[in-house]
Write a structure and sequence with these properties.
Shape: elongated
Helix content: 25-40%
Bound molecules: zinc ion
Order of helices and strands: HHHEEEHEEHEHEEEEHEEEHEHEHEEEH
Number of strands: 18
Number of helices: 11
Length: 385
C-alpha cells in the first residue's frame, strides 16, 4: 500500500463513528458471557453475530456442546482471487459470572467506558467490526481473505476452541490477536511467556518422631531441599521463572511425614528454555536415600517468541507513524491464544485491541478516545498485508 495518507483517511472516517462504536460496545457488554455459562455465552454470540451480519461477509456459527458457540466471519474482496488468508483472533467470553452487571454496569464517564469485558476484550471485537466497515467504505481492494474468529473459552484455557483457531492459523499468513494492549500508551504485546504448571510429590516413610526417628524418611525435608534447588533455576533476565505457589504435607508434629507436595508455576520466553526447564524437572533425583519423587505436568502454552512478531510489528509501527502515533511494544508474562498460533510458526501480532486497564477486576475500563485510532491501525494493517 503506497498511499501514506491512507491510515489518516481511515481515521477521518472512524472518528465521527465513536458514538456508534460505544453503542455497539454497550450491546456486547450488556450481553454477559462468562466462559462457563453456555446459555448466556450463546446469547452474547448471537448479539455479536447480528452486528457482524450487518457488515456483509459470511457469518458462521460453529456449534459447541459445552461452551458458547464460536463465531467465524469471512471477508474477501470478491473481485479477484484472494492471495492467502489472515486470521483475526479474539474471544468474547469473560471472567465475570452473570449478574455482575448489577454491581458493575456498563457506563461511559468522561473519556472512559467501564464494564465487565470492556477491555478484555469486547472493545477489540468492536474495533475489528468498524475496521471492516472503514475498509468497505474506502472500497479498498483486499489482497487476502480475512477470517475473524471469536471464541468463547479463552479465559479458561481454550480447550474447546483451540483446534478451530489452530486450523485457521495454519491456513493463514499472519494472525492478529485483538487482546488488550498494555498500559496507557497501548503497547502491543510482541512477546509472551510460555506458561505451565508442574506438581512435585515426595514420597518418604512415616515413623514416630520421638521413638523411631531413624526409621523415617521426612518428605517435607526432602521437598524443601528440592525447592531450594529448583528456585535457583529462575533467571529473571532470560524471562525464566519458577514459582512454588502451593505446598502441603505432613499430619502432626510428632509424625515424620511420608508425603509432601508442591505445585509450581513455570514461565519461559524461549521454547529452548521451556524444554530445558521441563527436562530438568523430570531429571530431579531424591537427595535422601529411600525417598521417591513423582513429577507431573509441564508447559501447556508455549511462548510467543518476539521473532514471530517482529516483522508485523514493524509494519504496524510504520502505519501508526502515518497517523502521528508512536507505537510501542512490550513483553508480558501471561499467555493468550497468540502463544498457540505463534508456536505453529505463523507470524502473530498480539495486543492489537483496546487501550485501557483493570482486566479481570471491578475497575475494568477502556479509554474511548483511542478506539478510532486503534481501529484505523487494524484496518490499515489488513489493507497492507
Ligand atoms: Zn483476553
Amino acid at each position: 500500500m503506497a498511499d501514506v495518507n491512507f491510515p489518516k483517511k481511515l481515521l477521518q472516517f472512524l472518528k465521527p463513528r465513536l458514538q456508534q462504536m460505544l453503542a455497539t460496545l454497550g450491546r456486547f457488554v450488556t450481553a454477559e458471557s462468562p466462559s462457563l455459562e453456555k446459555a448466556a455465552a450463546d446469547r452474547c454470540c448471537g448479539v455479536i453475530a447480528e452486528e457482524w451480519g450487518k457488515q456483509g461477509g459470511r457469518v458462521e456459527r460453529i456449534k459447541q456442546k459445552h461452551r458458547g458457540d464460536l463465531l467465524r466471519i469471512t471477508h474477501a474482496s470478491g473481485k479477484s482471487r484472494p492471495m492467502g488468508q489472515v486470521l483475526v483472533l479474539g474471544h468474547y467470553d469473560t471472567v465475570y459470572s452473570t449478574g455482575t452487571l448489577a454491581r458493575m454496569p456498563f457506563r461511559v464517564k468522561g473519556g472512559t467506558a467501564y464494564g465487565p469485558g470492556t477491555f478484555d476484550m469486547k472493545a477489540g471485537i468492536v474495533q475489528a467490526l468498524f475496521a471492516v466497515q472503514a475498509l468497505q467504505q474506502a472500497e479498498t481492494p483486499l489482497r487476502k481473505r480475512f477470517v475473524f474468529l471469536w471464541t468463547s473459552d479463552e479465559e479458561i484455557g481454550s480447550e474447546a476452541s483451540r483446534k478451530f483457531f489452530e486450523t485457521e492459523a495454519r491456513r493463514s499468513d499472519a494472525v492478529f490477536v485483538l487482546e488488550p494492549s498494555f498500559g496507557p500508551r497501548g503497547l502491543l504485546k510482541t512477546a509472551r511467556k510460555g506458561v505451565g504448571e508442574a506438581e512435585l510429590i515426595v514420597h518418604g516413610r512415616a515413623s514416630h518422631a520421638g521413638l523411631a526417628p531413624q526409621e523415617g524418611i521426612n518428605a517435607i525435608h526432602e521437598l524443601a531441599r528440592q525447592l531450594a534447588r529448583i528456585e535457583k533455576w529462575s533467571d529473571l533476565r532470560r524471562g525464566v521463572t519458577i514459582n512454588a505457589g502451593v505446598i502441603e504435607g505432613g499430619t502432626r508434629t510428632n509424625v515424620i511425614p511420608e508425603r509432601a507436595r508442591a505445585v509450581l508455576d513455570l514461565r519461559a520466553l524461549r521454547v529452548s528454555d521451556m524444554r530445558s526447564l521441563e527436562d530438568r524437572l523430570h531429571e530431579l533425583r531424591p537427595l535422601q536415600i529411600g525417598a521417591r519423587l513423582e513429577i507431573t505436568g509441564g508447559f501447556d502454552r508455549p511462548p510467543l517468541e518476539s521473532k514471530m512478531s517482529a516483522a508485523l510489528f514493524e509494519r504496524a509501527r510504520l502505519l501508526a507513524s502515518q497517523m502521528n502515533l508512536t507505537l510501542g511494544e512490550c513483553t508480558v508474562g501471561g499467555g493468550s491464544d497468540g502463544n498457540f498460533t505463534a508456536a505453529l510458526g505463523i507470524p502473530t501480532l498480539d495486543g492489537l485491541g483496546a487501550v485501557g486497564d483493570g482486566a479481570h477486576s471491578s475497575r475494568e475500563h477502556i479509554l474511548i478516545n483511542t478506539m478510532p485510532t486503534r481501529t484505523a491501525l487494524l484496518a490499515a494493517l489488513l489493507a497492507d498485508i
